[in-house]
Design a protein that fits this description.
With 154 residues, the chain is mainly beta. It has two helices and six strands. It has a five-stranded mixed beta barrel. The relative contact order is 0.17.
Length: 154
């Protein structure tokens, strides 16, 4: 099984290209924090190349920029090509099946300056506001059903 899940921030703006058959492909690099700190107490990150295809590639180019936070699920792919010097080069990248937009760099900076959590702050989930009792969840369900207390057996 080849499945990858990542959450990180774009290190640069996505690059959008089109293949010879006019299929959109975007690429960008994602900085993903490691779960531990180094000996100096600093958190390090891995920089992972991401490739996304078709309509999602166009959406990534139109709505994401450097610093945007995303969740990616996809697969690892390794490919090779011959460099200009004639040597074989190998590239490992994640082919994204799904890209979830989690927030921009600016929206997360603003969220850290306020005490109100945002839906993008994992670990600081906002409290549930409950169910809206003013709306009828069965409004578009079909015909109405009449219920009377007189019909109950007890």
């Amino acid at each position: 099984m080849n499945k990858v899940f990542l959450i990180g921030r774009l290190t640069r703006d996505p690059e959008l290209r089109y293949t010879g058959s006019n299929v959109a492909v975007a690429s960008f690099s994602l900085a993903v924090n490691r779960n531990f700190t180094n000996q100096a107490g600093e958190r390090e990150a891995d920089f992972i190349n991401i490739v996304v295809w078709r309509k999602q590639a166009e959406n990534v180019k139109n709505y994401l920029s450097q610093g945007s936070q995303v969740a990616i699920d996809g697969r690892i792919q390794t490919r090779s090509y011959d460099g200009e010097d004639g040597k074989k080069r190998y590239v490992t990248e994640v082919i994204a099946d799904n890209v979830e937009f989690l927030g921009t760099k600016n929206s997360n900076q603003a969220a850290t300056q306020t005490t109100e959590p945002t839906p993008y702050d994992f670990g600081n989930e906002p409290e549930s506001t409950g169910t809206n009792v003013d709306s009828n969840p069965f409004a578009d369900f079909g015909s109405s059903i009449e219920i009377s207390d007189d019909e109950l057996p007890f």
